[in-house]
Amino acid sequence: MACTFCEIASGNIPASIVAETSNFIAFRDINPISPTHILVVPKKHLESPAELASYSGEAVKELFSLLDEVADREGVKETGYRIVMNIGDDAKQEVLHLHFHLLGGRRLGSIG
Ligand code: 5GP
Ligand code: ZN
User: Fold this and answer.
1) Residues 32-61, buried b or exposed e (16+ Cβ, 10 A)?
2) Other CB atoms within 10 Å distance of the CB of residue 28
3) Is the predicted pLDDT of residue 81 greater than 80, yes or no?
């Protein structure tokens, strides 16, 4: 398996896991750019938002509940945070396995 996030999801590569549901896993970014920098990824290897759109409404609900729960646990729910998904070259996506960055714990700059 060549994909780093597939390896993390299957437990073959260690990561600092903060939460998990049946379809998604949340772990700390290895190179954080803010005090809270969590990656939330589908356990299955997906590459595009269109593939995520094929998930059931329950699974998508599970995803947003997990993002909310992680923000709460990290103590950024009240202070604010940002959820970012980089797609493709122009967004400087490095890992092709679909993922959300949850960033917080400091005043973030403008998007762009
Ligand atoms: P992208 O630019 O693809 O949106 O972001 C990929 C993110 O994955 C980067 O922030 C990078 O630091 C993180 N990352 C890459 N490899 C690993 C790894 O092996 N473990 C963890 N925890 N994070 C990783
Ligand atoms: Zn993968």
Assistant:
1) eebebbbbbbbbeebeeeeebeebeeeeee
2) 15
3) yes
- By annotation, the residues acting in catalysis are 99
Report whether CATH 3.30.70.360 matches the domain 4-32+44-94. Answer: no
CA distance 112 to 102: 16
* pLDDT value, residue 112: 84
Residues framing ligand 1 (Cβ under 6 A): 4, 13, 15, 27-31, 39, 86, 92-95
DSSP letter string, 54-112: TS-HHHHHHHHHHHHHHHHHTT-TTT-EEEE---SGGGT----S--EEEEESS------
What is the whole-number distance in angstroms between the Cα of residue 44 and the centre of ligand 1?
A: 17
The pLDDT of residue 1 is 60
**Model-level pTM greater than 0.70?**
yes
Question: Please, are residues 56 and 23 in contact by the beta-carbon 8 Å criterion?
Answer: no
Instruction: Give, in order, the Cα–Cα distances in Å from 14 to each of 32, 39, 42, 82.
Output: 16, 14, 17, 25
